[in-house]
């Protein structure tokens, strides 16, 4: 062996930036043992030991434990396998840190109490399945045991809130509000009444499912009336009502008469809880969807116009 190419532990420390104490520790543990010893008993290291020590330093900077470092050096596992495993672990840590940052920002925005902060932290750190359980429990409690509109139940179950890995403080706040909402007993009772109303309608033969096209027609026609400043008790409103009741009659296979208008009013009142809209707004916020529009001005106008029309016929 060429002694000129051997390094003392001090020289090795200078080359690697590691302390003598650290190198001695790695040597004593057999991770990077001395290549040989000088006649005086001092440890000496060759270029191979230098390369191993630099690899150890890099792996430790990446927070890879000594047991895994030893396995890599012993060729018991590949560096690629170790890198992949630790990259996956870092992804989890990064997600946790992002959520923690969002929670802290949300706490600052809400001026939360310590108890609220603790609850917020617990809720956002649940798994997706655990978070979904809040929604499934809500659906089971409100729609379970009644023959409600299956399309509505499927819509609720298929549009779960998915808190993203890089959640914003606003999404964390929305998630907190949603959990509070679906656990509110009064809201659950209101949704239960909607489910029971749907069951009654289905028993009377209404199996038409959801009515997205009809809803969009109401929003478009009433939206134009609102934009034009048309009052719901005006003569012009009567034309909007006539067009929309004709569309309802076609959709549900009913006669376009006063009974239909009273039936539409009942539907609007049953479905008119503002908290239902808030539910969908919160889900949209959490999932990063476009903002869910507030339908209340549209359907309030339509209800008033309908009632005006009916009152004028008495």
**How far do the termini sit from each other?**
114 Å
Count of helices? 15
Strand content: under 5%
Low-confidence stretches: none
Shape: rod-shaped
Report on the biggest sheet. Answer: 3 strands, antiparallel
Mean pLDDT reading: 88
Which sequence of strands runs across the widest sheet? 1-3-2
Classification by helices and strands: mainly alpha
Order of helices and strands: EHHEEHHHHHHHHHHHHH
Summarize the SSE layout with pairings.
Layout: E1 7-8, H1 9-16, H2 20-28, E2 36-37, E3 43-45, H3 47-61, H4 66-73, H5 79-110, H6 114-124, H7 128-143, H8 150-158, H9 169-182, H10 185-203, H11 212-227, H12 235-252, H13 258-270, H14 274-287, H15 296-312
Antiparallel strand pairs: 1-3, 2-3
Keywords:
314 residues; mainly alpha; 3-stranded antiparallel sheet; 15 helices; 3 strands
Question: Could you please describe the fold and organization of this structure?
Answer:
This protein is mainly alpha-helical and about 325 residues long. Helices cover about 70% and strands about 0% of the residues. The chain is built from 15 helices and 3 strands. The chain has helices at about 10-15, 20-30, 45-60, 65-75, 80-110, 115-125, 130-145, 150-160, 170-180, 185-205, 210-225, 235-250, 260-270, 275-285, 295-310, and strands at about 5-10, 35, 45. A 3-stranded antiparallel β-sheet has the order 1-3-2. The model has no long low-confidence stretch (mean pLDDT about 90).
């Amino acid at each position: 062996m060429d002694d000129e190419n051997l390094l003392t532990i001090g020289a090795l420390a200078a080359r690697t930036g590691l302390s003598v104490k650290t190198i001695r520790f790695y040597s004593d543990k057999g991770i990077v043992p001395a290549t040989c010893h000088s006649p005086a008993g001092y440890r000496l290291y060759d270029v191979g030991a230098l390369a191993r020590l630099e690899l150890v330093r890099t792996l430790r900077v990446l927070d890879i434990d000594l047991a895994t470092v030893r396995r890599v050096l012993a060729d018991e596992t590949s560096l690629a396998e170790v890198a992949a495993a630790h990259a996956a672990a870092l992804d989890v840590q990064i997600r946790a840190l992002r959520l923690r940052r969002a929670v802290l920002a949300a706490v600052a925005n809400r001026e939360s109490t310590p108890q609220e902060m603790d609850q917020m932290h617990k809720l956002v750190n649940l798994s997706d399945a655990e978070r979904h359980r809040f929604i499934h429990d809500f659906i089971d409690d409100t729609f379970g045991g009644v023959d409600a509109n299956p399309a509505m139940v499927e819509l609720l179950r298929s549009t779960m809130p998915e808190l993203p890995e890089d959640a914003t403080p606003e999404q964390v706040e929305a998630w907190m509000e949603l959990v509070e909402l679906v656990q509110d007993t009064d809201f659950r009772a209101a949704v239960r009444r909607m489910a029971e109303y749907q069951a009654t309608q289905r028993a009377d033969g209404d199996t038409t499912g959801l009515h997205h096209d009809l809803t969009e027609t109401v929003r478009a026609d009433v939206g134009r009336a609102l934009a034009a400043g048309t009052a719901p008790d005006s003569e012009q409103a009567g034309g909007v009502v006539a067009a929309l009741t004709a569309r309802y009659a076609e959709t549900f296979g009913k006669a376009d008469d006063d009974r239909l208008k009273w039936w539409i009013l009942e539907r609007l009142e049953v479905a008119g809880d503002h908290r239902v809209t808030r539910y969908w707004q919160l889900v949209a916020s959490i999932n990063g969807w476009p903002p869910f529009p507030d339908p209340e001005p549209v359907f309030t106008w339509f209800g008033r116009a309908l009632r005006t029309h009916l009152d004028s016929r008495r």
